[in-house]
Amino acid sequence: MREETIDGMVQNILVILPHPDDEAFTVSGTLAKHLQDGAHVTYACLTLGEMGRNMGIPPFANRVTLPAIRKIELEESCRAIGIQDLRMLGFHDKMIEFEDQEQLDGQIDALIKELSPSIVYTFYPGYSVHPDHDACGTAVIRTISRLPKEERPVVYCSAFAKNHQQAIGKPQLVNDVKDFLQQKMASIQAHRSQFQAAELVGSKKLEDEEIKERFGTERFWIYPFN
Amino acid sequence: MQLINQEKVQQRIDSFKNQDLYIHLEMTTGAYAAHLDSSKHPAANFITNAVIRYSHGSIAGSGPYRVGLKMIQGWIYSEGLTHWEESEMERLLLAGHDSQGKLIVSLQLSRVPF
Predict the structure, then answer these.
(1) Is the CB of residue A64 less than 8 Å away from at least one CB of chain B?
(2) Which residue of chain A comes nearest to B46, CA vs CA?
(3) Cβ-defined contact of B102 to A130 (cutoff 8 Å)
(4) Whose CA, among A1, A73, A133, B63, lies 20 to 30 Å from A59?
(5) Of the candidates B32, B35, B101, which has its C-beta nearest A57's C-beta?
(6) Confidence of residue A1 (pLDDT cuts 50, 70, 90)
(7) Is ipTM over 0.95?
(8) How many whole angstroms separate alpha carbon B18 and alpha carbon B15?
(9) Could you read off the pLDDT of A68-106 as tens digits, one per residue?
(10) Peptide bond preceding A171: is omega within 30 degrees of 0, i.e. cis?
(11) Residue A197 to residues A37, A79, A93, A204, B38: CA-CA distances in angstroms?
C-alpha cells in the first residue's frame, strides 16, 4: 500500500537533523517503514559533522579529511535506508546555535515550501543533549510556528536528555522497527569513522534479542504548537 | 594518522618559522561528556584560521607530547598530542586521541587556510 495523502499524492516526509549519523539512531527504522509504504523522504542534514571526535580506530580520518569522509558515509547511510533525496545544507558543525537565524530559518522554510511535507522529523528543542540538536529543533519549530496553522506539517521530535519524560511526558509514537533492523544497522555501519560496528553489535546477529531490544524501537513526541 | 615521530615533527615546526600561518587549535571533552557521566564538566574550544607567526617552536615530552610556539607577543601551547599525519607535506596536523580513539586535542598549521 502506498503511503498517500487523501488527495492521492505521495506523502512527502522531511527529516531535518544536524549531523551525519543522527538519522541512523533516531529515525532510520521509521523512515525505512515510510519508504516501504511508498513515501518520498528528503533528509536535510545541516552539517557534515566535521568537528566530530571519532576518527576511526586506529584513526584513518583527521580534522582536515573528516568532512569529505563523513559526506560519503552519509550518502551510504541514505542508500542503506532508501532515502531518495539528501540535501547537505553546509552549515558548520557545533555552530548551529550561533548561526544567523535568518539564514538558517530561511533554508528550512524554503524546503517546507518546496516539499509541503505532511511530517517533519527533528530533535525536540531543549531535550536532545547536544547543542546542535537543540538548536536544530529550535530552528525547525520556530520556522514552522510562523506558518498559518492549517499549513503546518506535524512535527515528530526525538528526545533523549536525562529526565526528559518528566518534562515532556511519554512519547506519543513508539514505533516498532524490528522488521527494519537490516536497514537500520546498515545505516549505522555506514558511519564507519564514527562507530565501530563491532563495538556496537559485537558478533551478535540481527535476530539477537539484545539487538532487537536496543535498536528495535524508535520514539517520538508530537510537538505541541500553541 | 600515525603515532608522532618527534624528530620529523620538529623538522616541520622549524620549516614553518618566521612566516604567516593559519592555525587550527582545539580542545574538547565532547558534547556528550556530562550526558554519559554527570560528574564530568563538558568543555571545548576551537579557533580556526587565525593567522599567527612564531619565531621558535618545539615538541617536548616522551608521548603524549607537548608543543610550544613562541610568538613575538605571547605563546601557543598544546598538551596531549599523540598522532600526526605524515603524508601531509605542506601542513602540520597534530592531534591527541584518548584511550577510546576519540580526538581530545588538535593543533594544525598551514600556509593556506583550512
Answers:
(1) yes
(2) A51
(3) no
(4) A133
(5) B101
(6) low
(7) no
(8) 9
(9) 999 999 999 999 999 999 999 999 999 999 999 999 999
(10) no
(11) 28, 18, 23, 11, 26
Asked whether the beta carbons of residue A94 and residue B103 sit closer than 8 angstroms, the reply is: no
Q: Please, are residues A199 and A188 in contact by the beta-carbon 8 Å criterion?
A: no
Q: How far apart are CA A149 and CA A121, in angstroms?
A: 18
Domains parsed from chain B with CATH numbers: 2-110 (2.70.180.10)
Which residue in the set B1, B103, B114 is minimally distant from A53, CB to CB?
B103
Contacts 24+ apart (CB under 8 A), B54-61: B54/B16, B54/B17, B54/B18, B54/B21, B55/B17, B55/B18, B56/B17, B57/B13, B57/B14, B57/B16, B57/B17, B58/B10, B58/B13, B59/B4, B59/B6, B59/B9, B59/B10, B59/B13
| Residue A71 to chain B, least CA–CA distance (Å) | 17
* Three-class DSSP category at A181: helix
3-state class (DSSP) for residue A111: helix
**Average confidence (pLDDT) over B56-79:** 95
Cell of A112: 517546507
Band the pLDDT of A6: cuts 50, 70, 90.
low
pLDDT on residue A211: 80
* Model confidence at B100: pLDDT above 90: no
Q: Does B104 touch chain A (CB under 8 A)?
A: yes
> How much is the pLDDT for A4?
65
CATH architecture of the domain formed by A12-222: 3-Layer(aba) Sandwich (3.40)
Domain boundaries, chain A: 12-222
